Amino acid sequence: xxxxxxxxxxxxxxxxxxxxxxVVRELEDMRTLTAVQRLYETVWNTGPTGTPVTADFLRxxxxxxxxxxxxxxxxxxxxxxxxxxxxxxxxxxxxxxAGVLRSAQGRSIGLALKLQQRAWAVEAGLRTMTWTFxxxxxxxxxxxxxxxxxxxVEYLNDxxxxxxxxxxxxxxxxxxxxxxxxxxxxxxxxxxxxxxxASGEQPTTAHRVAVPEDIEAMRLQDPVRAAAWRLELRRExxxxxxxxxxxxGFDRAGHYLLEP
Length: 260
Fold this sequence. Notes:
Layout: H1 3-20, E1 23-27, H2 30-44, H3 55-63, E2 68-73, E3 76-85, E4 92-100, H4 109-123, E5 128-133, H5 138-147, E6 151-156, E7 175-181, E8 207-210, H6 215-221, H7 223-242, E9 246-250, E10 255-259
Helix pairs in contact: 1-4, 2-3, 6-7
């Protein structure tokens, strides 16, 4: 990575934090790392037995050089993220969990956290960042593919097995693995409000694969229908990616765009 890439990454991170009205900093002490654990339990609505991560594990990660970042609105922790490095030859860091309190959502705090992770990774000489997300959650597809420009590389069936939280419970934990090239500038486009899904082909070479507008609400209101969406999306993406298709983007109507 060049000095110019580092300056650009640091400037992007600082700008995003300022726009979100937060300060993003590394966390190392047990008090703040325990606050991260509690924040994740709140975001995913879990109890101590189903916590996404424990404070002592975060402490070990931070001590080993894998930073835990917290976003603060004044004295209040409103978001956090962490990851861990892959083997050195890969030049990759895997971003594992990022979460923002519901009361603080809509301010692009998740973007500020991710861009701080990127700035750290660029300074460390890393080239890429990977992470997984639930491909049925439309806002996450918009964030990862449109706002950040990450590239899907693999569909993972029930990757984490059964998860004990109110977001994922009773639904297979399918995930889409994405890779983000850290030296590339952020996309210079925004995502307008999404409409409902529509089926059919685009008038281009891309094939559109729809996702529902709000799968999380559907899981609560109509779990049978939500399960059908899961299986249909899995069938489409797994089959087409296995045949060599590439997920080229995500459109404003709520579709993955697949190109041969």
